[in-house]
Amino acid sequence: MSAPAGHYQPLARLPEGKDSILNKAFVGPKQPIIDGLPTFSSPYEEREWVKGHMAAAFRYWGKLGFGDGLAGHITVRDPVKPNHFWMNPASEHFSMITKSMLVLVDEHGNICPEGAQLPINAAGFNIHTAIHAARPDVNAAAHCHSVHGKTWSAFGKPIEMLVQDSCAFYNNISVYNNFGGVVLAKEEGVNIAKAIGPTAKNCILQNHGLLTLGQTVDEAVYMFMTLDRLCYAQLLVEAAQASGIQRTLIGKEEAEFTSKVAGWFFGHLSPEYKLILKETKGEFLQ
Asked: Where's the Class II aldolase/adducin N-terminal domain (predicted)?
């Protein structure tokens, strides 16, 4: 697994220029309405930020009911050792995750002393290590067996451009059509990485569930939630159409235009992070 060293790229910065699409999306004082990444004084400081947001991301998934036994995993590339990644232990519920529970694993599956000494999900390691190797342009990957995501995955089809939120996935979603069972072999992880391709950040794993990528854990996790809800919407539309009601799809030009803003908006976990921080009094940061 190889990746260039250095800090992560900021997920979002409002582009300069009064004619920017994103600048037109806001009114009022020009303040950072949605937080981007802070400036880090060292990779070690950045590591702590990553771990804190990763723990919050699991708490968010717990609130959404995404916990499913030992299944489900998020990984984030380590800023200090870019060929290592942080991962959740296999023995803890999403709603209980703290920074100190996160495991640092290398490309060979060795548990490193900088993190918790706890077991990790082998299938998750095989999927994520292949993705991190194939996609050095992303830092985070998220996968779990959400009900709506795994239900829609049985069709082996991407979601359609049904509503405004769908446009965040315009030309940004792939499908892995081969279900090879629980991913206990490295080859299956490689096959999944190939199915995602060099540019897409979202994938529907047929008969399995959803997988999302991001520059940050915030982006990967929030896009996962958005995609799961869109799978739910797609299922409702399919059911309505079966009773004779016809759907209307968003046109290609409109979807492409909207994707430039929608993809940016849905890459942020900032409001949810602040809520979890308040609700838990920062307990997840321990």
From this structure: 52-235
